[in-house]
Structure formats: C-alpha cells, structure tokens
Amino acid sequence: MNPPAFPAANHPSRPSLTLALTIAMPLIVVAANVFGVASARAEELRTPGAEYTQRYDDAVHALNTQRYSAAYGRFAALADEGHAPSALMALAMVTYRPSMSGAAQWSVTSAQLQRWSALVAIDVHARASLIAEHDGE
C-alpha cells in the first residue's frame, strides 16, 4: 500500500490542540486589549503616535477575527519598529502558533526574538512602578 501524499491527513484530531486553542486565544486577545489600554493610560512610558495606535488596533482586530497570519504580520512589523505591546503579542503568537494556525509557519529570526523579548522586559519593568503606585506601595 502506498503511503498517503499528505501523512498529516491521517492523524486523528487532537483534542489537546483544540483545548490549547480554546485557552490560548482568549488569553492572547485579552493581553492585546489590556496592553493597548495600559499603553494609553501610561503616558509617561511613551505615547504611541496615531499611526502606531491605528496599526495596533488593526492587528488586534485581525486577531479577534481569527485572521492570525495578518495579525502576526502586523504585530511583527510594529515590534520591529520598537512597539513593546506588539512585541509581546508577536512573541505569544510565535509561541502558540501550532495551536492557533495548524501548519502555518511564520517567519521569525533569533535576532527578532531577542529584540522583542528585550522590548517586553523593558516595558514590564517600566510598568512595575505603575503597579506599585496603583497598589499604594
């Protein structure tokens, strides 16, 4: 018997991937919305220009409408320009891509991963003081 042309087609459905998608996607969408709102409120960090805001909103909308490749492309482009909330989203999407898009392969270099991770770390560190202020510490 000849092997099938697409061996992956014979694999049974994976409930764990469905469960991962069910859990991961709402978390990613919530993170996108939270970081977008937090960025708008934390003006002392950096006020994003109208272009960043519109492009970020477009990326979040693409994610909300399950157009994952479009969302990733927009987040990645913004992250490459130094937009920390987009860097967080691009990193999350790279991390969870198998459960979100099946066989889709998104391109990312190790240099991008390092830059995006550094952006997110700086942003989180800067927000730590805002959290302390909010909590009254």
Explain what the structure shows.
This protein has one domain (16-40, 47-135). It is built from six helices and no strands. The longest helix has 27 residues, at 15-41. It has helices at residues 15-41, 50-64, 68-80, 84-95, 97-101, 110-135. With 137 residues, it is mainly α.
Keywords:
mainly alpha, single chain, 0% strand, 137 residues
Brief rundown of the structure:
The chain is mainly α and 137 residues long.
β-strand number: 0
- Overall SS class: mainly alpha
Number of domains: 1
Fraction of residues in helices? over 70%
Task: Give the overall average pLDDT.
Answer: 74
The whole-angstrom Rg is 18 Å
Number of helices: 6
Query: How far do the termini sit from each other?
Result: 70 Å
Low-confidence stretches: 4-12, 37-45
Backbone shape: globular
Question: In what range is the share of β-strand residues?
Answer: under 5%
Largest sheet: none
Succession of helices and strands = HHHHHH
